[in-house]
Amino acid sequence: MILNYIDESYTEDRYLMVALACPDHVAIPLTNALDEIVLEIGNKYGARLDWNPEFHGHDLFHGERDWKCFKSNVSARVEAYSAALKAIAAHDIYIILRGVHRKRLVERYINPYPPHGVVLAHLLERIDEYAEKRNEVALVIADEVSEKDKYRKDLSTYRQYGTEGYRARKITNVVDTLHFAPSTASRLLQAADLVVYLWCRLLTGKEKNERAEEAKNNLWALIEPKIVHRHVWWP
Question: Cα torsion at 51, 57, 62, 66 (round to 10°)?
């Protein structure tokens, strides 16, 4: 079974989502590796003993919330981000990236489907496709959102009638329902967040200074070989 961990990131222009596709036998080793990184960073840079932060792309970049203790220590935050992405890349996972241009979605359709639902449908198509290629079934675990029941009903519709659009397909390899969990409780949802947040920054444009731009590109290079599909739809 392939466990697909889904998270999103967005700007005014784009809505982006990732599926971090993780074979079931990889889930525990990758979780353990991410836990080890937290311990190593905490010990190296003198975090308090009870420090157990969430890997969160925005907070790591800006030194906020769980990473506030490293607000002035950019090196520690870059090291943590880099180590986490290296751990992801070192395991037998693959990455699917989908997005939509939000403004074009509104301009083209009178009553547009919410961007989360649009991108989720496209992501489920590719999850289903890659599971089929590998002769596996897929379970989907997503970060919590407000319209959980609606997206579960959508999955049932996709199973019965298929998705819409030029790459429409019936979803036949996704088992059970869509599962939603808080990212604070799942290192693998956190891993998905690190990937999609970085992709969002990559698409947004150059950073304010050259060091930040170099760091961003170096981080992306760590996981880019794991990407099997990447597309932002322009309606």
Answer: -20
The three-state DSSP-derived secondary structure of 55-111 is CCHHHHHHCCHHHHHHCCCHHHHHHHHHHHHHHHHHCCCEEEEEEEEHHHHHHHCCC
Closest CA to 109 of 235, 11, 16: 235
pTM of the entire structure? Answer: 0.95
Q: What angle do CA 90, 95, 97 make, to 5 degrees?
A: 150
The arithmetic mean of pLDDT across residues 8-17, rounded, is 96
Domain ranges of the chain: 2-25+94-233
Predicted confidence (pLDDT) per residue in 77-93, tens digit = 999 999 999 999 999 99
Decide if 149 contacts 161 (C-beta within 8 A): no
pLDDT at 143: 96
How many CA within 13 A on the CB side of residue 7? 27
Q: Is 131 helix (H, G, I), strand (E, B) or coil?
A: helix
Q: How crowded is residue 99: how many other Cβ atoms within 10 Å of its Cβ?
A: 28
CA 50 to chain centre: 27
Is 2-25+94-233 a domain of CATH 1.20.1270?
A: no
Structure confidence at residue 106 as a pLDDT band (50, 70, 90): confident
Answer for the pair 116, 15: CB distance below 8 angstroms, yes or no. yes
Check if the beta carbon of residue 228 is closer than 8 Å to that of residue 96.
yes
